[in-house]
Structures are given as structure tokens and as C-alpha cells.
């Protein structure tokens, strides 16, 4: 089915660039927020409460996407919300990846009791409902950016560990590893230099996925009012507020939702696109 | 006979896992800042009141002793008493369990129908635009979590085209003649279709939100599996007998292709159940998940414990059932 | 009038090289026609084209397939499928993959009778039992209740043979039916197929690379090289004096079990070159399909 295949390739290329574009835009917004955002995200003005977006009658110029019930500019809050979102995505995603991949690598390559302990831990961990566990951890750690990052790492490291362990076991059985050992390289050395490069594509793909998940977890925690402690706007917090005034001011919910939707979608499609790139069959 | 041995082994590991969960939860929540007793009492309560209640719930004893007491209680079926409502944890939890179960199972059924339809349609019309469109839809549904789908559904069907209810389990003004908490099931059994319709109207959107990601996974996996199966010799042979394409897919390929999908669906179903926590909150659905969030906010330690253990038990039970089902359905394993 | 008449059938990989080059052959009713050639010569492809099971990566570029008075290639898909289902059957090559592992044996024989021809289940089961007895399977009832993986390869091939005759087809395509079997079993199966063909009066298109098999079962044969028919003659004439150098070389290459000292004789390079030139000439001249 040559036609179907080429269709898939074209689509894969397109979504890779589109996702990268959106995420790049987001990064810029986050970095340049104080200069790019038209208004002060924290400035309240009750006289300007619940103004609709610019194309609807009754809108106020300068408040492009409208205002919430406290008169705060939606667009500016979304732009500033990107800071928290991306911060969490990058840091939590990377740390989770490092912790999970390391444990998975150790378990899959060293085998023996190391594998037994780590595997048992994974089983126990996977028996926890993730959202509940994260809410619980935030309650323990208190609100704040670092609490969220720690919570994500603690809950989601198993995602990397399982996959990396399986790959490491498969790779570890291969001949090139045996040759390396015969050549005199130590166990850790073999692990790092022989196996890691082959497991890397999988890890990278999972990393982008994890970033998307991190953004979602932060949004959910904000939604349940357990996120960062300051008044800094978060997309989840905006969604939570928007949910209550959904009939009177739909834009307060819609715009952060769309932003969140596109962001998560982009991370995921970025991962899929990278996976296709790495896949030798399609190349 | 080896079947029995595997079963016993699985049960042992299950118990071990649950024990691990219990230990972790117990010690984690006791590190939680915030005194549940203080939160429970009205302002102006005396030090004595606080001390008395603390002693009553055994919160003044050393951690290990508390754990020992709790385990002893569990052996006798006593999961402790909820701090916020003063009722036995077991009763509370079992009271809310049916709502969450009904929601999860409804979501599972919806996911299987949607995903199955996507996979079968994509296979029947493979190589063309239909399959391409299904792939795109699948990809999107897969990338976006249930939480976001829930919000989208609230917007679309709650505000834009208000067809379904977006809050609660049943319209509050209705009188419910039920004896169990399985509203959906019992309304059907009692042939109260008016009630059943009302309940479905409330459950539809949270269930759909939960179902969409799982449907996408099923759709993708089943389609892949079907495509591979369609290349096999026995399918080709069936074509020479005069069967049409649709018949061939359904009769010959589906059963063999569905089997590998089953185990993955089992694992993903546990994720779906985990998702009920936030979805129930989003739709104000009176289930286990919603109660769990409140329990954490109120630092209701025994209740948190009970709920987490119950979720863990459900997860392991689902995994066990899936493995059993696979062994039963695969004729090769049955006779092995 | 032959039951099966293939005229100038050309087939190729989509946007790729040709696989069949204007193949023509005739199979009379109740006759056994062999298709021989080395691997990749295209012999299986002919059988698949007749039965309408060409792989999706392959397309027909020209020619006609006349079956029982109709050109299959000019029929709408549904009608064609029904015609083939009603009058033809396949004996597949690999008995280990040709039976559905999830269904019992009984339904796999009777399904086409019940679903497509409208027989009652009782009649269909009785027919299945008769056929299984004909292929010398003891205890047909137990076999019908079994799953494929519970039976040996030889047993499964017998079942597939029985199944092929179930709807009393006028033409059966046997796609290397003995290749995947143990040598000890091959002879039995061959005898079985031959016997059933004679008893039921079915035309048989027998695909094989083994000339020995051809000598035992077929009345006529076509020799293929790279999708081109290089010889089409009666078996008697062929073994007495093959008409084409390539055929002669094939015959010479057959191991002579009775004379081990004779050794193995590969097809000479000169002969290969000559027949390749023939193919090239065909492609160059190619106004066909």
C-alpha cells in the first residue's frame, strides 16, 4: 500500500513542524511574558469585569480575549500562565526521565536482586490511582512549584522505568554487549556506552510525552486549587474559575482550555513525529 | 493443574502488592501537615476537646502502633472511622463504590464500541481517505487526556448544545426507590426507564470523557492487529469460499486480532478507573473519586487510607481478571 | 470448450516489474494441469489470479480468464466472488497456517455450505463426515470437534483437501500442496489428491516445482520462467522429449534416486541466458497487456 504509506509520512512531517511551531511560540511567550502581555495579569478592575473577546459586542479595546469576573485580562494571564506550564514541563519532565530511565536501565541490565526490588516497586506504584496520589503528595508537601515537580517525578517515574527496563533487557542479551564485556569493559561502562545509545530514541519520545503529562498534572492540581501558592495565573486555575461562570463568560474557560489543549497535543504529536523519524521501517 | 499454580502465585503477589500500597499510604498521609482534628472542631474548642478526640482516633500513639491497630482492624473487616463524618470507612466507601463502578464500566463499554467501530471501519476501507481520517482522529483522541475531553464536553454539550446534564448523578428532585446504590443497573431491572434515562443523561458525558482516550488506544491497536491478521493464509482461504470483505473481517480475522488487544485494554482500564478521580470532580458526580479529593482536602486520614486501598484492590483485581480471560479465550493456552 | 481458459494474462507489481507475461493455458473439465517452474517463476500467481486472491500490491494489466463461459476479469467484484466461491476451491500450501486457530475443524469445512450455499447444518455436517472418511481420517466426529493446533500437519492437509471438495467444485487450484509436508507423507497425500480428483471429476490446476509430482498426477503441464510460459504440452510428450531447452535442463536437474553416481546437474548457464533473452525479447516486443 505505497499510497497509504506516503500519506502517513507527509502527515508525520506536517505535525512535527506544527507542534514545534506552537511549542516554540509558547516558549517565546513564556520568556518574554512581561513584555509581550498587553496588561498586568494580576491587575483587578471590577468595572471591567466579564468583558467579552474583541469580536463580540461590548468588548473593550486592548482586552483581546476578554476579562474574567475580577476584571483581569485573559490574554495576559494565559501568556503568564505559560511560564508555569513550561517550567513544570521542562523540569518535571526531565527529572522524571532521569530518575525513571536510570532505575529502568539498572534493573534491565544488572538483573538479579536489583531488578527484583525495582520491579516490585513498580508493581506497587502502578497500583496507586495517579491523580489521587498526586493530590495526596501535594497535601503532604504543601503547595508550590517544587512540590508539583516532586509529585510528578514520584508518581510518573514508572513510565520510563518499565519501558527502559524492557529495552535494556532486550539489548543486554545482544551480541555486541557480550563483545564489549569480553573486551574488558566493566558492567556500568558497558551499560552506559553500549546500551544507552540504543535506548535513547525511546527515552526521547517518552520525554516529550512526559512533558505533556506534566502540564496536565499541573493543570489538574491548579483546578483542584492545590497548585502554586501565589496569585500567579495558571491555566488550570483559570479553567477552574471559568468553570463556575461558564454560562455568563464562556471565554474565561474556553481560551485557557484551547491553549492547554494545543499544548498537550503538540507535546504528544512531537513525540509521535520523533518516533516516526527514529523508526527505521518508515525511513 | 499448572493453571491452578499460576492462580495461586498471582494471588500471593497481589496480596504483597496491596500490603506494599497500604504501608506506603499509611506512612505518607501521616506526614501530612494540618491537624484533621482541629479542622473538624468548631473554632473555640478547648485544648481538652482536641486532646480527647485525638486520643479517640488513636492519633497520639506512635506510628507503628497505629499501623498495627489498623491492620488488626482490617483483618476483622474494620477499616476505621471517618474523621469528618464519624461513620465507618467501609460503609462510606462501599456506599460510593457502585457509582464509580457504573461510571467506569459504562466508559469501558463506550470505549470498546467506539474503538471497535473505528478499527473495523479503518480496516474495511483501508488505504483510502477514510482510514487516514480515522488515524488523525485517533491520534488526537490519544494525545489528549480525559480531563481535557471532559472540559470540552462540558462546553459543547453543557453550554452550546445543552443535551446532557453536566453535574451530579441524578436530578436531585427525583424520588429514588432503589435498595442498592447501583442506580443505573437497578433502574433498568425495575423497568423505571424514566429514571434510567435521567441517570444516563447525567452519566453520559463523564463516561464519554473517560472513554475517548481508551477508545483511541483500542482503535489503533485493534486496527493494527486486524491488518496483520488479514494477511494470514486462513483469511485468504476464506476469500476463495465466496465471503465478502466485511464478512471476512468479522468472521475470520476479528477473534484472532482481538486477543492481543485484550491485555492492553485491561491495563488501560485501570488507568481509566484512576481517571474517575478528577472526572467525577469535574462533573460533580457523587462517586469514590470525588469523595477522595474531599478526604484529602479535609485530611480525613482513615478515609483516605480506605479509598486508596480500595482503588489498589480494584486495579489488581482487574489485572487478574484480564489474565484469566486471556487464558480462557485463547484455545491454545487452554489445552496447554 | 475448456472449463478454464486463460488468455494472455499479464500481471505486475504496482508501478513495478511484470510478474506474468501474457500467460495462456487451457484446462479441460476433470483434467489435471501442472504449473511448473522455479521459485518466483509466477506459477502461484496464476492460481491466485484465477481465484481472485492476488495480493493488494499486485495488479492485472491485461488478458482474460474464462471460467465456465464467463470472463472473470470483466465481472463486477461481487458477482466474481460468488462465481469463484460456487465453482472453485483452493488447496493451500501450508497446512499449519491455513486453518483458523480460533475455530473448530467442523465449521471450517461446513461454513461455506451453510452460509453461502444455504445447506442445513445437518446436511453439511454429514457431508463433512463423508469427506473426512474419504481422506482416510478415522473418527471424523472427534476431528470435527477439534481445534487445528491439536492435529498434526499431515492430518491438517487432509482436512484442507477434504474441505476443498466440499462444495463439489469444478476447478481446484492446488498451490504446492505437498511442499510443506514431510517426505514420508507427501506420497500419501499425492495419492489422495489424485484419487479424489478422479472420483469427483474435478479439474485441477496443480502448482509445483517438483517434476516428479507432475509425472504422477498431471495430464498436461505448462513450464514457466520469470512469468513467461516457455512450454505447454502433454505430460507424456514432455517426459518423452521436452520441447524447450529450459525444460530439458529442468528434467536433467531432477535428482535420479535410482542412479546416485549420476550426481546433481544444475541448469547450464547457457540455457539460463537463452531463456532470459527470450523474456527480454517478450518485454521489448511487448504489446501485450
Verbal overview:
The complex is a heterotrimer of chains A (283), B (336) and C (289). Chain A is mainly alpha-helical and 283 residues long. Chain A has a single domain (14-278), classed as MetI-like fold (Orthogonal Bundle). In chain A, 74% of the residues lie in helices and 0% in strands. Chain A starts with a helix and ends in a 5-residue tail after the last helix. Chain B is mainly alpha-helical. Chain B is built from 14 helices and no strands. Chain B has helices at 2-29, 36-40, 47-56, 63-75, 89-124, 129-143, 146-160, 183-189, 193-230, 233-240, 245-282, 288-297, 301-329, 331-334. The model of chain B has no long low-confidence stretch (mean pLDDT 85). Chain C is globular and about 60 Å long. The longest helix of chain C is centred in the middle third of the chain and has 18 residues, at 183-200. Chain C starts with a strand and ends with a helix. Helix content of chain C is 42%, strand content 22%. Classes of the chains: A mainly alpha (283), B mainly alpha (336), C alpha/beta (289). Chains in contact: A-B, A-C, B-C.
The counted number of beta strands of chain C is: 10
Give the fraction of residues assigned to helices of chain C.
Answer: 40-55%
Which stretches of chain B are poorly predicted, pLDDT < 50 over at least 5 residues?
Answer: none
Determine the N-to-C terminus distance of chain C: 24 Å
Question: Which bin fits the share of residues in helices of chain B?
Answer: over 70%
CATH superfamily of chain C: P-loop containing nucleotide triphosphate hydrolases
Shape of chain B: globular
The mean pLDDT of chain C is 90
* Biggest interface, CB < 8 A: A-B, 47 and 56 residues
Question: C-alpha Rg of chain C, in Å?
Answer: 20 Å
Q: Determine the strand fraction of chain B and express it as a percent band.
A: under 5%
Please state the oligomeric state of the protein chains shown: heterotrimer
What is the first-to-last residue Cα distance of chain B? Answer: 10 Å
Predict the CATH topology of chain C: Rossmann fold
Poorly predicted parts of chain C: none
* Rg value of chain B: 24 Å
Indicate the CATH architecture of chain C: 3-Layer(aba) Sandwich
Total number of β-strand segments of chain B? 0
Overall geometric form of chain C: globular
Could you say how many structural domains of chain C there are in total?
1
